[in-house]
Target: ribonuclease P
Amino acid sequence: MLVRRMGYFSPSLSKTSSFFSLLRKTPYPFHLHPIQFFKPIRPKSPHAYPFSMNHKTHLCTSAALQEPTKTLSNRSAKKARRDAPESVLRHQLDQCSKRGDLQEALRLYEEAKLNKISLNVHHYNVLLYLCSAADTKEFGIEKGFQIFRQMGVNGVAPNEATFTSAARLAVAKQDPEMAFDLVKKMKSFGVPPKLRSYGPALFGFCDKGMADKAYEVDVHMRESGVVAEEAELSALLKVSSLSKRADKVYEMMHRLRASVRQVSEETAGVIEDWFKSEFAAEVGLQNWDVRKVKEGIVKGGGGWHGQGWLGKGNWTVVRAEMDSSGVCRSCGEKLVCIDIDPKETENFANSLAKLACEREVKANFVQFQDWLQKHGPFDAVVDGANVGLITQRNFNFSQLRSVVNKLRQMSESKKLPLVILHKSRTTGGPAQHPNNKKLLESWKKAGALYATPHGSNDDW
Model:
């Protein structure tokens, strides 16, 4: 899909079109037990053993009977657990869940109360789930909250599934505020919320057009380390569009761009509705700083400048296709490559360095970091071992040299790429050939070769 203003192509949306195109040995555990040969011990006298052959046979028979007795005992214990009232009830409720049979589940629940059967969190969760999914909403809601209250009276600690089902009951009751309150209470029980825990409150607020409350849920999600997926972002985008929150529309579109890349038909329809709206035509700056836009595109990984909507006027919305080289057949613009932004890059680098220091000999990786500070930065990195062994049995320096030289030609700075080779590759075998020695020496002098020390993994 391509969206653009009449009269000019908006640099802010060259990226928007991209989220409609996807730029997007197990050993067998044989444990071999050696056969042991024992030399028979012959007694020095016939009286060396204080028991007769008959007695010995009796002892062997007794030992042989111990294992079957133990097996029978285990089987009896398993059967006892399986036949326990709590286990029978669990199995029956699970069958009700498979069939979606709320009435039978409630009958079993009432019967269990009369028989004073102790219910655990799983029993309650199945009942709450069936109530939240009931065809007759009012009946399911009423019974569901009764069971939820009884669970608290009986002192059964809830888990994430409990809160999620209760939140669904709240939304079925048209009360997303209650659903959100339930999610907030999860932390006090030491229960980390999941994405599905937030769904009832988020979708409930979005369906009611309560944009600010939906944004509040979104913030709480991110603070809890929960990442929204397409369904959540699409709902936030729709409520933002309907409430004419242009800044939030812009934010949600680029969050979709960053995390989803290729959207569903339903989400594509939400995006089209925004650009076809009269309000979208009125949104945007008429004067902007071109320098800042260019800087934003570079910093944002290409295509996204982060400066908001640029220009005013009607948008033209067209369903288009890209050719094999990524050029739009409608407007002729080429899709940009999506790159991670500077913050993500920094986080990734720091995490990788931390992990490498934990897994490697710390001094080795710190030494590499110091070396990199002195000789970097580099436009490209070459895994020397992988390149030198492509389609080869023996390490091929000629092949590696060819790739390094090609990368140097491609580089705007014309600087050699960083070549990573394990130390053994730089001293032994093919490295002893005069031409290869000369090549390695030239890379060393240029500060483009790093030889990882013995005991270190060059992949880091």
Observations:
- Confidence is low (pLDDT under 50) at residues 6-65.
